[in-house]
Amino acid sequence: MNKDRVKLAIAPIGWTNDDMPDLGKENTFQQCISEMALAGFTGSEVGSKYPRDPNILKPMLELRGIQICNAWFSTFFADDLRAKTIDEFTHHMNFLHAMGAKVIGCSEQSKSIQGTTKAVFEEKPYFTDSEWQRVADGYNELAKIAATKGMQVCLHHHMGTGIQTTEEIDRYMSMVNDDVYLLFDTGHAYYSEGSQEAMLAILEKYLPRINHVHLKDVRDDIVAEVKAKKLSFLDGVKKGTFTVPGDGVIDFRPVFKLLDEKEYQGWMVVEAEQDPAIANPFEYAVKARRYIKETAGI
């Protein structure tokens, strides 16, 4: 891949899980960003332990050669919380802008079960036509607000939410304006659709409108267990549904090839939430960095 177009980041969720703070509670913020840098990454997303004052956070990251590239933001447009969502988004955007980020990765969390004990496949939410319209209108508005700062909004398709499957991604992308983008996540696409081919089809179809990429691998045996036992998303995470690229069933070579051929420009972020007590974060960060160097040439 062209290293002038693509930068590599890693998410802090491998060190401390924001959805389950007990996972990695022993790992400090400074340990996390130091190990990111030591493993060879130059970017990070934002975790719960990160200071939210740019005057404090920036120097600590610059010391280690790390940039902030994005931070999760939850939207609730389908739940008709438009004003509250837009107000909170504006504060979030201003923080990311101060940190030098160019994209804002959002997830529509209305009716989401990703943080509950509900079975992730059997009990996922679905939106009504009017809820879909509220989501599309809301994201179109967020894109306009972000443009005032020279930033772009992207939606993170996610297990346990109303925008998870290929069909739901298709509907969303057909309803929003062209200045609304997609955050493509290899792990969630594979997990939802069950095959490398389906995951690659989403990537290929929307590449011109993908402005941020999450790289995570999947363990098929854990997915099978989640389905068989009707487990929740978080149960799967604790058991090891996800892992870093090169450690699961996904072949990332065609992913990197597609991104390179279509001249993708932006960040690729290793984001593989696991139990840090089982999967040492630094060890897995090094493993991911080595695999990407071997398969993507960067």
TrEMBL record:
Residue ranges of every copy of the Xylose isomerase-like TIM barrel domain listed in the record: 39-294
Originating organism: Yersinia rohdei
Key words of the record: Cobalt, Lyase, Manganese
Presence of keyword DNA-binding: no
Catalytic activity line of the entry: scyllo-inosose = 3D-3,5/4-trihydroxycyclohexane-1,2-dione + H2O
InterPro entries: IolE (IPR023952), IolE/MocC (IPR030823), IolE/XylAMocC-like (IPR050312), Xyl_isomerase-like_sf (IPR036237), Xyl_isomerase-like_TIM-brl (IPR013022)
Top-level class of the enzyme under EC nomenclature: lyase
Enzyme Commission number(s) of this protein: 4.2.1.44
SUPFAM superfamilies the record matches: Xylose isomerase-like
Originating gene: iolE
Matching HAMAP family: IolE (MF_01672)
Top-level taxon of the source organism: Bacteria
Family: Belongs to the IolE/MocC family.
Cofactor: Co(2+); Mn(2+); glutathione
One GO molecular-function entry: myo-inosose-2 dehydratase activity
Name of the molecule in the record: Inosose dehydratase
